[in-house]
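WARN no homologs supplied; continuing
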Amino acid sequence: MDPTVQIALYGVAGTAVAALAGVAGAVFGPLLTARQSVQLATNSRLRELRHALYLKALAYVEDVEARLDRISEPMADHQGFASTVATRGDITAELRLLAESDVLDAWIKLVDADVGLAYRENHDHTLRVGNLVGGDDPMVKDVVKAVADFRQAVRRVVGSDDSR
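OK structure emitted
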């Protein structure tokens, strides 16, 4: 084969490969961009759902702390508290569905500690109003630690890891 023809064929083949790459980029580029946009929107929506759920769980934690104050602080408001947040069961179910594992683990430990203290409060009759326990009571300490650990886990996952 004549070297001139051979060089021309290489040129045509190179141009054809470049044209195919251009067409592939024109076809697949928008598809990849659209896929990435959908993934970003999904991640954004999941983040919004998680943040709303964490706020709901933290509101429940405020109720737990109000009960702790009621049973351990002599000057606390003994009227009790009336939660306007979702139930512990509802929050637990949502956390099982949406939360990162660290947050869910911290929540489960908080629930376990709180349920133990609530059982003692309701059945032991040593934690009734007027029969206060100190902050050094082991069950109270467990709940206080679980509350702090839960708050810290939430702060870590939402990106505000400063202590307050």
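The radius of gyration is 30 Å.
OK
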